[in-house]
């Protein structure tokens, strides 16, 4: 799973759903150097019952390249033993999965911080756009970027690792 | 030069991608937005607030003052909302 | 899953292994208000092949009470939709699970911060003690508490939530 | 009064739990440690560095100056290493 310098990682951008358990086992099963596994799963919320579906548009090629760029930064910054990032596109109904980040490490802080970091950058730097289709509206509405997500991403400019 | 539009830029221009000949007067990505906005009402609507639009050249984020050669893939899109 | 004030939580202290997928589904399956699931799994490492097993001693009753106290603090501090904490005791070989925290929320920061917070307090405030049994030694050795874990727990004294 | 010992305190005292009559001279958890240390070599070894020992009374963490009534469950243990 690793070369001489940094840990390899897996990045996938796909329409189909993912299997958190199967992806976790790829990183951890049979290994005895993994002390911490953090999984982040992002799901489509129904917004109090008003949402019919989210439509996720992406820029093929650039999406994979951007996610891989941040994955590379993560494996250079934290001592991970494994890293997998999967982001879906297409129409996603409430309750379904959107995004998965799994970071494994010998120690918990690296796994927590790397997955937190990656989610902040997926929110603000990966070329995906969400359109909300509400039950009561014929036209979908593009979700606006949030200032709080930019603020979250900016946290990582300073040295945060211990 | 290939140009791609995403999200509401795609909807407003009515175009997901197109190939254009870069005019000699257009040097930068920012100038390309101004030139595109002059094409028709849909393009004018798409580029009415160029400061909110993100630009990628060959799939890398760039600023408005990025100088174009005419052979790149240029993409215009709103701030990203993934994750 | 929730009463009028705060979200309920599940705390278990047990010898047997746990099933991350099954525990996750209890918190998320069929719900459409969960936007973020963070799972933390802590595992026994083999310490470069030297470790035969970890032996986890605990204080029955107090262990559950202390974990529940921090779980209660977490659901009061962050807007969670669900929270499960499971800590094992007994002899655990390398590669096996030790501890599980699952936090679910509408938004990612709450789920990340609550699970991170809980792990810091499980490390330093829950009455568990680890003894290392090495392959090359007849006597086990008690693991010493680490100053870095106290420092991690102290991070939560300040207001860290957004 | 029930007293419980965990981890290396259990090993050094050779006792996981015992019931004692709280001596009248012992008012606090800290004084109880001193009194226990005087019992025999194993207890002396267990309590040789009382400042490193954590105390719980009725399963709640307390400090050395916690005043005992004689009916509690008192536990002594090293710094915790869970998680």
Any chance you could write out the topology, listing elements then pairs?
The complex is a heterotetramer, with 2 copies of chain A (162 residues) and 2 copies of chain B (83 residues).
Chain A: E1 10-14, H1 20-28, E2 36-43, E3 51-58, H2 62-77, E4 80-88, E5 90-92, E6 97-105, H3 108-125, E7 128-134, E8 141-142, H4 147-154
Parallel strand pairs in A: 1-4
Antiparallel strand pairs in A: 2-6, 3-5, 3-7, 4-6, 7-8
Helix pairs in contact in A: 2-3, 3-4
Chain B: E1 2-5, H1 8-13, E2 17-19, H2 29-37, H3 41-46, E3 54-57, E4 60-62, E5 73-77
Parallel strand pairs in B: 1-5
Antiparallel strand pairs in B: 1-2, 3-4, 3-5
Write the CATH fold name of chain B: Ubiquitin-like (UB roll)
Q: What proportion strand of chain A?
A: 25-35%
* N/C terminus separation of chain A: 24 Å
How helical, in percent, are the residues of chain B?
A: 25-40%
Subunit organisation of the chains: heterotetramer
CATH architecture of chain A: Alpha-Beta Complex
CATH superfamily of chain B: Beta-grasp domain
Question: Which two protein chains have the largest interface (Cβ within 8 Å of the partner's Cβ), and how many residues from each?
Answer: A-C, 37 and 37 residues
Any idea what the radius of gyration of chain A is? 16 Å
Taking pLDDT < 50 over at least 5 consecutive residues as the criterion, the unreliable ranges of chain A are none
Task: Write a compact overview of the structure shown.
The complex is a heterotetramer, with 2 copies of chain A (162 residues) and 2 copies of chain B (83 residues). With 162 residues, chain A is an alpha+beta fold. Helices cover 31% and strands 31% of the residues of chain A.
């Amino acid at each position: 799973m690793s070369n001489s310098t940094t840990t390899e990682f897996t990045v996938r951008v796909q329409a189909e759903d993912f299997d958190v358990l199967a992806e976790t086992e790829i990183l951890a099963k049979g290994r005895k150097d993994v002390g911490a596994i953090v999984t982040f799963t992002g799901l489509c919320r129904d917004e109090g019952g008003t949402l019919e579906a989210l439509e996720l548009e992406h820029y093929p090629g650039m999406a994979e390249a951007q996610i891989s760029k941040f994955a590379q930064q993560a494996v250079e910054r934290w001592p991970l033993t494994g890293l997998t990032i999967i982001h879906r596109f297409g129409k996603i109904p409430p309750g379904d999965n959107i995004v998965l980040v799994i970071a494994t490490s010998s120690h918990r802080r690296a796994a927590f911080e790397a997955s937190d970091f990656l989610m902040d950058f997926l929110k603000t730097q990966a070329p995906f756009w969400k359109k909300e289709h509400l039950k009561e509206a014929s036209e979908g509405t593009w979700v606006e970027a949030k200032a709080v997500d930019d603020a979250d991403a900016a946290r990582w400019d300073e040295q945060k690792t211990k | 030069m290939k140009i791609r539009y995403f999200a509401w830029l795609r909807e407003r221009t009515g175009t997901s991608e197109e190939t254009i000949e870069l005019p000699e007067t257009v040097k930068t990505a920012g100038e390309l937005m101004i030139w595109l906005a002059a094409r028709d009402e849909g393009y004018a609507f798409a580029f009415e607030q160029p400061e909110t639009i993100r630009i990628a050249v060959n799939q890398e984020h760039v600023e408005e003052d990025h100088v174009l050669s005419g052979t790149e893939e240029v993409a215009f899109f709103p701030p990203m909302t993934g994750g």
